[in-house]
C-alpha cells in the first residue's frame, strides 16, 4: 500500500516528458495524502498530457467523494470491484510522478515510517489508474495507485507489519511509459516493474 508520497516537481515532470509544460497547473503540496491534488500524466490524443488529479479514485457514477479508501487498488480481482472495474476495463491508466513515497517499517514492534527514494535522487513514475468525474461542482480527475502482493519482493517485503500481507505499488520504467498509457488492461502487468534495492533506498525519520 501507499497512502502518502512526495510528488515530482514541475521541472522533474518536464524532464520526464522531455517537453515544457504549458498547461497552467494550480500549486500543489510537496507531501500528498488522500484527497490532496497533484500532477498526473494521462494519454490524450496519442500524447502524454499532465493534469491535476485528486489522490483517491471517485467513480464516475458518484456525485460526491466516496467515504471508503480508494487511493490504492489491488490488481488481484480488480475486475470484480464496482469502483475500479470501469476505469480498468476502459484502460484509463495514468502515471504518477514522484520523488519519494512512504511506508511503515517495523523494528522491535515499533513503526518507523520510511522515505523510499531513488539512490540517484531522480524522479520516477508509478503505475496508476484514473477516472474523470463530471458530477462534482468542479469536474475533476481522480486517481488510484495499482498494487500487487509483495510477500516475495526482496525490497518491498521489508515494509508493513510482519504478520500482515505485504503490498506494493509498481514502477513504470522510462522506456515503458508511453506504452503503459496506451496499453489495454490485459497488457499492463507486463509493463510494470518491481521496486528493487539496486535502484531504491529507504531512510527513517
Explain this structure.
By secondary structure, the chain is mainly beta. It has a single domain (5-99, 121-197), classed as Alpha-Beta Complex (hypothetical protein yedk fold), CATH 3.90.1680.10. Helix content is 9%, strand content 37%. It has 3 helices and 10 strands, in the order E-H-E-E-E-H-E-E-E-E-E-H-E. Strands 1, 2, 3, 4, 5, 6, 7, 8, 9 and 10 form a 10-stranded mixed beta sheet that branches. Strand 2 (37-44) and strand 3 (47-55) form a beta hairpin. The model has no long low-confidence stretch (mean pLDDT 91).
Topology:
Blueprint: E1 5-7, H1 10-17, E2 37-44, E3 47-55, E4 72-74, H2 85-89, E5 93-107, E6 110-118, E7 124-133, E8 140-149, E9 167-169, H3 177-181, E10 200-204
Parallel strand pairs: 3-8, 4-8
Antiparallel strand pairs: 1-5, 2-3, 5-6, 5-7, 6-10, 7-8, 8-9
What is the distance, rounded to the nearest whole angstrom, between the alpha carbons of the first and last residues?
19 Å
Can you tell me the CATH class?
Alpha Beta
Q: If you compute it from the alpha carbons, what radius of gyration comes out, rounded to the nearest whole angstrom?
A: 16 Å
What is the molecular shape? globular
Compute the number of structural domains: 1
Which range best describes the helical content: under 10%, 10-25%, 25-40%, 40-55%, 55-70% or over 70%?
under 10%
Got a strand count? 10
CATH superfamily: SOS response associated peptidase-like
Main pleated sheet: 10 strands, mixed
CATH topology-level name = hypothetical protein yedk fold
Instruction: Determine the mean pLDDT.
Output: 91
Please indicate the percent range of residues in DSSP E strands (runs of 2 or more): 35-45%
- Classify the secondary structure makeup into a structural class: mainly beta
Q: Count of helices?
A: 3
Amino acid at each position: 500500500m501507499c497512502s502518502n508520497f512526495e510528488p515530482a516537481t514541475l521541472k522533474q515532470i518536464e524532464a520526464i516528458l522531455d517537453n515544457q509544460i504549458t498547461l497552467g497547473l494550480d500549486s500543489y503540496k510537496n507531501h500528498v495524502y488522500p484527497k490532496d491534488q497533484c500532477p498526473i500524466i494521462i494519454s490524450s490524443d496519442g500524447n502524454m498530457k499532465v493534469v491535476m488529479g485528486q489522490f483517491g479514485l471517485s467513480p464516475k457514477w458518484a456525485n460526491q467523494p466516496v467515504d471508503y479508501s480508494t487511493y490504492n487498488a489491488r490488481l488481484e480481482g480488480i475486475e470484480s470491484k464496482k469502483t475500479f472495474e470501469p476505469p480498468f476495463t476502459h484502460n484509463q491508466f495514468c502515471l504518477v510522478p514522484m520523488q519519494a513515497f512512504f511506508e511503515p517499517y517495523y523494528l522491535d514492534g515499533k513503526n518507523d515510517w520510511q522515505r523510499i527514494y531513488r539512490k540517484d535522487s531522480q524522479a520516477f513514475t508509478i503505475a496508476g489508474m484514473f477516472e474523470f468525474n463530471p458530477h462534482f461542482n468542479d469536474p475533476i480527475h481522480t486517481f488510484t495507485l495499482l498494487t500487487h502482493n509483495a510477500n516475495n519482493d526482496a525490497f518491498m517485503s521489508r515494509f508493513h507489519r510482519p504478520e500482515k500481507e505485504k503490498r506494493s505499488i509498481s514502477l513504470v520504467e522510462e522506456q515503458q511509459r508511453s506504452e503503459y498509457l496506451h496499453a489495454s488492461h490485459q497488457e499492463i502487468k507486463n509493463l510494470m516493474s518491481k521496486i528493487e534495492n539496486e535502484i531504491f533506498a529507504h531512510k527513517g525519520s
